[in-house]
Amino acid sequence: MSERLEALVADYRARLPGRVAALEEAARRLAAGEEGARGEIRAEAHRLKGSGASYGLEALSRTAGALERAAREGDADAVAAALQDLRAAITPP
């Protein structure tokens, strides 16, 4: 991997915790019945799915895809479970 690409991936990874925290807040709003949160979660999960794949972060992309599906269905419990998996996917071993 080129140094430039490594720097881009590192920058992307550094921003992931904030993005996941925003998703977790939206999930709390979804669980409280705020319907607009569903679309917000779906859209951000879709972006993460695509960008994760672009950067070669396959586990992140798969997990974000599961989150996107859960949000599309409006299943707050499935959203919460997918977010736990997403948090694990971005946490270094």
Question: What would your notes on this structure say?
Answer:
The protein has 93 residues and is mostly helical. It has one domain: Four Helix Bundle (Hemerythrin (Met), subunit A). Helix content is 85%, strand content 0%. It contains 4 helices and no strands. It is elongated. It starts with a helix and ends with a helix. The mean pLDDT is 95.
Write the layout of secondary structure elements.
Layout: H1 3-31, H2 36-54, H3 58-73, H4 76-90
Provide a quick synopsis of the model.
With about 90 residues, the chain is mostly helical. The chain contains four helices and no strands. The chain has helices at about 5-30, 35-55, 60-75, 75-90.
- The parts where pLDDT drops under 50 for at least 5 residues are none
Helix content: over 70%
Order of helices and strands: HHHH
CATH class: Mainly Alpha
Q: Average the pLDDT over all residues and give the rounded result.
A: 95
Please tell me the total number of domains.
1
Inertia-based shape = elongated
Proper CATH architecture: Up-down Bundle
- Estimated structural class: mainly alpha
Structural features:
4 helices, 85% helix, protein kinase activity, Sig_transdc_His_kin_Hpt_dom, 93 residues, two-component regulatory system, HPT_dom_sf
